[in-house]
Amino acid sequence: MEIIAHIKNPRCLIFDIDQTLYDNREYYEGQIDLLINRLAEKQGLSYKEMASIVNQKQNEYMAENEGRKLSLGNLFLRFGVTIEENCIWRSELFEPEKFLIRDEKLIATMEVLSEKFKIAAVTNTATDIAIRTLRVLGVESFFPLVIGLDQTRVSKPTFKPFAAAADALCVPYNQCISIGDRLNVDIETPVRHGMGGILVHSMEDIYNLPDLLAKAL
Predict the structure, then answer these.
(1) Cα Rg of the chain (Å, integer)
(2) 3-state secondary structure of 196
(3) Tell me: the pLDDT tens digits for 174-192?
(4) pLDDT value at residue 217
(5) Distance between CA atoms of 197 and 4, rounded to whole angstroms?
(6) Which of 23, 91, 187, 214 is deepest in the core (most CB within 10 A)?
(7) 88 and 69, same structural domain?
(8) What is the Cα–Cα distance from 182 to 180, expressed in whole angstroms?
(9) pLDDT band of 67, cuts 50, 70, 90
(10) How far apart are CA 127 and CA 129, in angstroms?
């Protein structure tokens, strides 16, 4: 776990969800495969052909942008898939209930954090999938606000979803901390706009957040 940017008197924690609030690589990577397969069906190609083309587009972008990746939402825009259609695909295809289970340690962690902070989730997936994910983990009640891709129609690392969360909770940006597993997607942009940032590498980092925040902030 790394504190990327300190702030004084934080009041709000903005969490990423996938691979931040759970650790299940099979489910996470399976989401990508499902979307590529649906895109292949739309394009009239095999999965293997479509995956190769998608990877090529991603690699071209990374070569031109210092190794940064496009989000799947933005990548699929290049194939004529709108954000709205992308979210519909996610709602139809993703099944967090088949891969994730209730996490008692996460529940205990969120109970502690919710006593001191306002809490929100900002995710690049559809809002209904995000809520179902939080529900199966057992922490839905701690997230009164979930900002999904279908609400802002732009993916992180764009600042708009982070701003939407802070504004909805009526908390100034400089009193919010963004927490996630990807530096360039979850942390760098909100930090540039005055938020704090914590990069996590494992579920143990999440479980240790109450102690970290008590000591460091």
Answers:
(1) 17
(2) strand
(3) 999 999 999 999 999 999 9
(4) 60
(5) 5
(6) 187
(7) yes
(8) 6
(9) confident
(10) 5
Q: At 5, which helix (H) or strand (E)?
A: strand 2-5
The single-letter code of the amino acid at 115 is: E
Claim to verify: residue 200 and residue 119 sit in the same structural domain = yes
- The domain total for the chain is 2
Q: How far apart are the first and last CA of the chain?
A: 14
Q: Is residue 22 within 8 Å of 33, Cβ to Cβ?
A: no
Strand partners, 122: 147
**Residue 180 lies in domain:** 2-23+100-216
With b for 16 or more beta-carbon neighbours within 10 A and e for fewer, the 77-93 pattern comes to: beeebebeebbebbbee
- The verdict on 143 and 106 lying in the same domain is yes
**pLDDT tens digits, residue range 131-169?**
999 999 999 999 999 999 999 999 999 999 999 999 999
- The first and second tokens of residue 57, run together, are 């587009």
